[in-house]
Design a protein that fits this description.
The structure is a single chain. This protein is of the alpha/beta class and 171 residues long. Helix content is 32%, strand content 22%. It is built from 8 helices and 7 strands; from the N terminus they run αββααααβαβαβαββ. The strands form 2 sheets. Strands 4-5-7-6 form a 4-stranded mixed sheet, with helices on one face. It has a 3-stranded mixed sheet with strand order 1-3-2.
Length: 171
Amino acid sequence: KLQPTYQDSPGIQLMNVAVDAIEGPRPLYRYAFSSSRWATGLASFDKERLIANFNTKYVKSNISREQLIVVDNPDNYLTTELVPCVTFDTILDRASRDTIDFLITDVEGHDVKILDAFPFGRVRPANIIFELPMRRDASLDAFLAKLRDQDYDVFISQADAIAMLRGAKPS
């Protein structure tokens, strides 16, 4: 779907894959009751997160707006599909790049896990923007410490974090 939007944009290379810490197919969970952008954007590798999101005001209001009737049973409202996953190393190899100005993730609860597998020894993105987990835990704290150890200044908002590499210049 992004091909027409970015086909004439230099420097943008689209890859129809998911990023993960390991290579190979993986089940992606999504809501079966709507193909609207609000619903497809919530797809996640984390089935429990999707189940938890079902009862949020955001999901409930969209279900109501679309006049959907959905039974509160994950077996009825969730579906899965296998998606190909690649590592950041594979993406860097395919893109043939040794600099990254922006690395942005919004992967419904897996941002820290995926970004923690980023090969910072190979390349350090100038800016990293990622979604925070629903609950602060030890893995987030360890990842934030890792970013600071890699010379990033980290800024936290309500739902996202921005890490800016000190002294970075645009490529």
